[in-house]
């Protein structure tokens, strides 16, 4: 019997299928759509800024600034900044302002290979227009909108570029200046303001670029008209007559800097815009594309199932877009697509997004672990403040490294497995890279502190065992329990890894690490099924917890127990839970040689979460908060560590028992590990 709730979900999924039916697919690299219904855009990002396009022509929904925070309210926690929006243009032809109501043949395409988001359309019989949005990889604080207008008749064109400042900003100062150096002139539209509670100064600059002329010579370019609608709405316009048959090209570029990264963000934002202005378009965009070409050396190629190929590439595109190896920054659950979860850093990085990146791009992986290393001293202070030794990492982290979870959320005070998750990620980085200098300077100092934390966090029992009391586990539906399976399992693993790291460096380890690791309790039901915590009695669960002891921890390794745990906990997953649990089950089934169940759960881990028209992932089947980078990390793990058979071991990355679902003809993993190996499964 189908419940009303299930009927509603099926109807919702059917709507998604209908909405995405118009999506066209090209060679596994591009996704195009002519559908504007129930629209969710795909962000253009470069690890520093995220530019979220709109279905409305020449409109950008928002710009997100990575690792730039201010308090959400006077009594609230930090929240990542929504930047000033330099991504909106207005285009008029013969006095008509163009919008979606007056155009035809609207099409949008995400070109994943070169991270280009293109919109094209026609206006009456007068013009065909196309523009592409880039978040420049080579100039990471800048965006670039490249416009092409093919005139079918003589037309009068007017274009307006804008810097629009969100109302939450304070004291904006909007200006327009023409900077000069000898004969070179550089027109700069600019707004400088304070973030919502005045923590940061934010500066955004913008200008037009004309490719066909030397646009730095004032007499050669169209006359520029400055209009300050208000201090929150700063505009720069030009007009141009275009003759029939002419292909007119220009660009609008903007840059945004803050006091988080620059002592003088105002002049730095100007310099980036000037750099883009004076660098030939061909060279500037070639640099951007070449950097993406390097990123795609780590790739996943699926033959025989184009839709899975596109889904997997879109997931990998987002992880690459939300990070950069030269930043020492991490990735929030929603990356640079929104302010959801306040842009904070959770276990989502270490457990879900980090492992695929560790396999395919060690430079980005290094940035993610260094983010934690840079905040080690703050974590050590937190441990002291809660009566423990070593280092205690926050459940939600921001630029400071202090706890950023809202005080009302029990996770911030009690979800302590994050500290073990960080330690596990650190040893895995060494396992893959064999970088002994990094291990000595960054890896072991952190592993030592987190191991000391788990010794102090564990309570001895009369029988010689150890209990970890009063925690929120991975299953957050069960707060303040004792001996949560994943918390205890991750603590055991972290303590073992700290011992291995000390041995690798020829250092003496704390004997308590081994003693506690060998005796931390993992509870069982009478039939041998692993209990999620000491008093667990079969309640529904939010996400995988016990099953993480099979993968990725390898604490439970016998097939009978693995299967028993799988069959017991899969039916208990809540419908509104996040996507990653299905991914874990899929990996485990693949490693057990069950390709059918693995593929079933692989698809279940993300297909219900896809949102039209491009397939952006929401956190859950019943939510609408894309893009959920954590879910992307989970589905990629199914492919890499499940079907691909890759394992992280003390000998590095090895392959054991890969398996293909019958829906695929071949799976190729490229750029794997420091040696950039290729693995082919067919």
Automatic annotation (TrEMBL):
SUPFAM superfamilies: Six-hairpin glycosidases
Identification of the protein by name: Trehalose and maltose hydrolase (Possible phosphorylase)
Assigned keywords, A-Z: Hydrolase, Signal
Record GO biological process: carbohydrate metabolic process
Pfam families: Glyco_hydro_65m
Sample GO molecular function, one term: hydrolase activity, hydrolyzing O-glycosyl compounds
Signal peptide: 1-24
Domain Glycoside hydrolase family 65 central catalytic intervals: 313-523, 534-606
């Amino acid at each position: 019997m189908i419940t009303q709730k299930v009927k509603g979900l099926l109807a919702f999924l059917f709507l998604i299928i209908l909405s995405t039916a118009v999506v066209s697919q090209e060679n596994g690299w591009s996704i195009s759509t002519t559908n504007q219904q129930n629209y969710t855009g795909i962000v253009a990002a470069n690890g520093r800024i995220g530019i979220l396009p709109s279905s409305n022509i020449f409109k950008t929904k928002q710009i997100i600034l990575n690792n730039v925070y201010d308090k959400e309210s006077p009594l609230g926690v930090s929240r990542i900044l929504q930047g000033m929006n330099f991504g909106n243009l207005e285009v008029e032809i013969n006095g008509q302002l163009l919008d979606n109501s007056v155009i035809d043949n609207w099409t949008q395409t995400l070109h994943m290979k070169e991270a280009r988001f293109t919109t094209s359309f026609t206006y009456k019989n007068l013009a065909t227009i196309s523009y592409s949005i880039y978040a420049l990889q080579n100039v990471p604080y800048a965006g670039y909108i490249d416009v092409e207008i093919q005139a079918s008749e003589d037309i009068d064109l007017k274009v307006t570029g804008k810097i629009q400042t969100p109302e939450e900003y304070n004291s904006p100062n909007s200006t327009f200046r023409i900077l000069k150096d000898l004969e070179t002139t550089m027109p700069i539209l600019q707004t400088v303001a304070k973030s919502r509670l005045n923590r940061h100064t934010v500066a955004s600059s913008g200008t037009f670029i004309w490719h066909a002329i030397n646009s730095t010579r004032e007499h050669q370019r169209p006359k520029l008209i400055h209009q300050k609608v208000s201090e929150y709405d700063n505009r720069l316009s030009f007009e141009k007559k275009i003759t029939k048959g002419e292909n007119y090209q220009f660009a609008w570029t903007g840059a945004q800097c803050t006091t988080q990264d620059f002592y003088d963000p105002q002049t730095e934002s100007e310099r980036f815009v000037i750099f883009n202005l004076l660098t030939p378009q061909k060279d500037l965009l070639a640099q951007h594309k070449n950097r993406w070409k390097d990123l795609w050396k780590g790739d996943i190629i699926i033959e025989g199932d184009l839709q899975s190929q596109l889904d997997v590439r879109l997931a990998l595109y987002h992880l690459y877009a939300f990070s950069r190896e030269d930043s020492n920054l991490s990735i929030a659950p929603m990356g640079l697509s929104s302010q959801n979860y306040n842009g904070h850093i959770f276990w989502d990085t270490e457990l879900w997004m980090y492992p695929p990146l560790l396999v395919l791009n060690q430079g980005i992986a290094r940035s993610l672990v260094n983010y934690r290393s840079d905040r080690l001293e703050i974590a050590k202070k937190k441990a002291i403040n809660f009566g423990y030794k070593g280092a205690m990492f926050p459940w939600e982290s921001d630029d400071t490294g202090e706890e950023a979870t809202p005080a009302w959320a029990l996770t911030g005070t009690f979800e302590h497995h994050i500290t073990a998750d960080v330690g596990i990620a650190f040893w895995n980085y060494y396992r893959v890279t064999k970088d002994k200098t990094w291990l000595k300077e960054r890896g072991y100092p952190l592993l030592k502190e987190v191991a000391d934390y788990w010794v102090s966090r564990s309570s001895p029992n009369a029988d010689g065992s150890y209990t970890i009391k009063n925690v929120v586990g991975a299953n957050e539906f069960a707060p303040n329990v004792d001996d949560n399976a994943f918390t205890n399992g991750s603590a055991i693993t972290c303590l073992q890894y700290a011992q291995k790291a000390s041995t690798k460096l020829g250092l003496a380890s704390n004997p308590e690490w081994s003693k506690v690791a060998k005796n931390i309790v993992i509870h069982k039901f009478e039939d041998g099924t692993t209990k999620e915590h000491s008093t667990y009695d079969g309640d529904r669960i939010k996400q995988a917890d016990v099953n993480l002891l099979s993968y990725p921890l390898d604490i439970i390794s016998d097939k009978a127990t693995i299967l028993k745990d799988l069959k017991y906990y899969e039916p208990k997953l809540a419908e509104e839970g996040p996507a990653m649990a299905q991914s874990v089950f899929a990996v485990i089934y693949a490693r057990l040689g069950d390709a059918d169940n693995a593929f079933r759960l692989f698809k279940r881990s993300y297909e219900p979460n896809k949102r039209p028209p491009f397939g952006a992932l929401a956190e859950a089947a019943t939510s609408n908060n894309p893009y959920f980078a954590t879910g992307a990390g989970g589905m990629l793990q199914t492919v890499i560590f499940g079907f691909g058979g890759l394992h992280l071991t003390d000998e590095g990355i090895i392959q054991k028992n890969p398996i293909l679902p019958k829906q695929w003809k071949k799976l190729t993993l490229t750029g794997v590990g420091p040696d950039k190996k290729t693995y082919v499964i067919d």
